[in-house]
Structure formats: structure tokens, C-alpha cells
Amino acid sequence: MIKFDSVHKTYPGNIEVLKDVTFSVGSGEFVFLVGQSGAGKSTLVKLLTSEERPSKGRVEVGGWDITRIPRRDIPRLRRQIGVVYQDFKLIEKKTLWENVAFALEVCGESFHTVRTVVPQVLNIVGLEEKADRYPQQLSGGEQQRAAIARALVNRPKLLIADEPTGDLDSLTAKGIVDLLLRINSVGTTILFVTHNREIVNMLKRRVILIHDGGVRSDKSRAKYFL
Amino acid sequence: MLRAHARIVKFALQNFFRNFWLSAVTIFILTLSFLTVNFFILANGFTDAVVQRIEDRITIKVYFAPSTQESDVKVFADQIGALPQVALVTYISKQQALDEFKSGFADQENARIEEALGELETNPLPSSVLISAHTVEDYPAILSAIDQSAYAGLIEKRSYDDHRGFLTTLEQMKKKIREAGTGITIFFALIIALIVYNTIRITIYSRRKEFGIMKLVGASNWFIRAPLILESIFYSLASLALTILILYPTLSFLQPYIARYFDGLAFDVLGYFNSSFVEIFGYQLASSLVLNILTSGLAIGRYLRV
After folding, report:
1. Which of B27, B89, B181, B188 fits as disulfide partner to B81, beta carbons 3.0 to 4.6 Å?
2. Span B272-299, pLDDT tens digits
3. Residue B253 structural domain
4. Which residues contact B233 (CB under 8 A, 6 or more apart)?
């Protein structure tokens, strides 16, 4: 599902953020990408969503080589990946329903599909009752669940969760993790980017540790040690 | 494709109403600009009506020497009437001139005039020819034809020169009003362009985070840009509609006062707008749409990095 092959990323001023990163994630896996702040985790996510391009190496998503993806194809790539961010990235002037529907609308889905799928997804994340509310009228956990609903609505094969529990209390964070586990159980590949040791150690899944721009370790059913 | 367009319209309408105050202020300023432009259109129409009214009254009246044979005057009238610039020629015989003269007095005075004319033994009034041209610009050619006519020597007097100075002044005034109107229209067109440019710029700035999110969700550039352009079209439509809504009741309220103030000049302001409704507002709509689409496109290209 994901393939990084000798990927380097250097920013202007010769700032090397990623150094020779190589790993792959299979279809249906649940993988933690861990590391301290500044280790290069967010840059890896940005390479997957084509917000950044690698300076060297090759990046593949779902068998699609996106290393030098043309600009016009970027929206098509992003519609195939669900991404959940730490700061939720919900559109403030749209209701919850509209935020989720937007992800379908940009794909050109029919009005009927939007009307059918959005309530289903909101039901999955437990927010059906709050569909008409605006993001600022929701709690942090609810906003994150809304962001997950939006990421799920296109039934992506890959869901990237970039520090999804970073701004949440531990109980709410656990709810989000449970939700992601449920999503994974139906076959969606999950790349969970975090530095939350408690969550990683609790789930005992595959852990890729990024340190100083490179892969320091890649172990299945691992714990997070530094 | 149709679905995508429908959604773009939906998003544009949502943005238009959810950013209500920004939309309201933009529409308010655009409406003021439209009202000013329409004021000059009205001023132009008014001067046109004044000039037309005066032009309608302008004729050349050629008076012949009393000794001139009526048959010569008739031939002269036929020759002038054959000129392409001439719209109407009216021959007024000596007798008609006398009858008209008499009809201007009461019976008692008429008796005295009859007495005076009886003493003269002959009709002292000259025969004349009244000439109307198609347009004011035709008069110089007609005057030249009169001067070159074989009957020019029989002409005692012609009346056209009396109006020439006034008409020239009026034409100059009309030209100046037109120039001022054009200048002000261009000025307000620039203001409209700046307002729309700035509104779109503010919109982009205040919603830059939202646009970023849209991109991350997979929205294409067109899906983000098109509603913004459409919003600027809504500004044009709404402000022109508001202009019409303000203009018509105001003009119908002012109509009797205008008629009273310009006594004798039956200038129907509402009729003027009604008769050219499509041209006046159609042109304004078309030019503001073109202007707004170009301006918002420029602002989007400059400030929206998608």
C-alpha cells in the first residue's frame, strides 16, 4: 500500500529532514510511525499526500508512483487517501454534515450517494445527532471523530492519522484509537503517526521508529522505546 | 459535469450568504457606483431631450421680396424640397401670411387692421418658405443650396442664423455632459474593479485555511476558484437589482417635480429608462460581469495559491 524507497528530503539551505528512508506498508496493516518531534514524521505524511516532493528516492501509494506526480493529478491522489490531522482541519463555516459531504462532492459523487453515505459514516463515528452543528460547537474528540468520518467517507484503502490524539485527553484518545481499530478491522490500511507512547504500547502493533530523519527500527508487535 | 456546476453554484451561494457582512458592504458600494453611473445616463437622456426639443423647433424661414412672383417662390420651394437633407417644405403665400397675421388678433383689433391694410391697397406681407431639415447637421448644406439658388436674389431675409449660436452652445454642453459621463463611468468602473478585487482578496485571506483544507481533501483548483468567481457575479447581479429597486421608486417620486421644474419639457424619466431598459441595464450588467470576472480572476491568480 505504501512504499518508500531510499527517500531523501532536503529543504532549501541544505536542511536534510529525511535521509535514505526505506520501508513499506502492506494492504490492511495497522502501523505506528513514531518518533520525537522534528524526527521527520510529518514530512513523511506530506510526501504521501504530495504536499511535498522527495528530493531523491521513490514514493508509491497503492502501486501509484507519486514521486513526480503532476500537479493536476494531486487532487485525484488525495481523494484516494483519508487523512486525519491533529488539528482536525474541519472547515469552520460548514456544518459537520457539509464537511463530510464535501469530501464526496469534490469527487463528483451523485446527490443521492451523498445523502445516503454521509449519515452512514456519521453513524459509524457516533455523530449522526450532531450533523447540523458547526465544528466550533463540538468538543475536541467530536471534531476528531468528524475528521475521521470525512476521511472515511470515500472508503479509502489507506487512512493516515497524523497525531490524531495529540490534542485529546486520554479517555477521548482511547475512543479515537478504538474507532481506528474498527476501521482497520474491515481492511483499511492505517498509518498512525504519533509520539504517544501509551497508545503504541497498549496496542502492540508494528512500529516504525523515525529518528533524525531515518528509520531507526521497524518491528512488528513492538513497543515504543527510545 | 452538470453536477459539478450545480455544486459550484451551491458553494458560491453558501459563501455569499455565510459571509453576509462582506457581501452586504460590497453590494452597497457597488450599488452606489451603479446609481452614480445611472445618474449620468439620466443627465445624458435629459440633455438629449432638451436638444431634441430645440432641434424640433429649428427651421429655416425664407422671406421673399414683396414684388416676387408667387410662381417663382413655388419653384424655389420645389427645388429646395428636392434636396435629400430637407424633411419638409411649407410654402406660405402672401394671402396665407396675411390670414395668419389677422388670426392673431381679436375681432375689434382686426377691424382696425383691415382699415390700415385698406389704406395700403396691397398686401404688405411677403410670401415665405418654411424649411425643416432631417437633422441639425443638414442645415448648413440647405443654407448653401439656398445661397446658390437662382432665386437667391429674390430673398429678402432668412431666419436660421437666429438659432445658430444657441444651438452651438447647446451642442457643446451636450458634448461636455457626455464626456463627463464617460469619464465618471470609467472612474466608477475602476472603483467597482478595485472593490471586487479587494473583496476577493479579503475573502481569500480570511478563508486561506479553508482553501488549504479543501485542497487536502482533494478539491481541484477549479472547484475552489469557480465559486469565488461566481460570488463576484452574484455581487454584480445583486447590486444591479438593488440599483433598479432604488432607482425606479425614486424616479417615480421625482417625476412630477422634474416635470414641474422643467415646465414645457415633457421629459418622462421613467419612460426614458423603460424604453431603453435592456440597453441601459443590459450594458451595465454585461460590463460589470466582464469587469468582475476579470478582476476576481486577477485577484485569485495573485493571492490564491492552490
Report:
1. B89
2. 888 888 888 998 888 888 888 888 888 8
3. 2-54+167-303
4. B289, B292, B293
